[in-house]
């Protein structure tokens, strides 16, 4: 049962964090960018603005997902007394890569 709880908690928090980060990026871009929404995939938008928007969005999404997953794992650990199984054995896996 714990594995299912972690999957719901971790995935749910990452989705919510992504939605919030997307809203924040849109607000920041409209205030400090060109003052209008931008579609970085549209070739009519300047390439510099598209790259800047994509970089800002990527940074915000990555940061939001990382922080949400860390908070969810912390909550899970406080509730169950241990980290989720998916996070328990990562040390040995990193040693096998090098």
Give an account of the 3D structure.
- With 98 residues, the chain is mainly α.
- It has one domain (13-83).
- The chain has helices spanning 2-32, 47-80, 85-88, 90-97.
- The longest helix has 34 residues, at 47-80.
Structural class: mainly alpha
Compute the number of strand runs. Answer: 0
* Integer tally of domains: 1
Which percent bin holds the helix content? Answer: over 70%
The gyration radius over C-alpha positions equals: 18 Å
Outline, from the CA principal axes?
elongated
How many helices? The count is: 4
Describe this protein with a few key phrases:
98 residues; mainly alpha; 4 helices; 79% helix; 0% strand; elongated
Describe the structure concisely.
The chain has 98 residues and is mainly alpha-helical. The protein is 79% helix and 0% strand. It has one domain.
List the helices and strands and how they pair.
Blueprint lengths: L1 H31 L14 H34 L4 H4 L1 H8 L1
Helix pairs in contact: 1-2
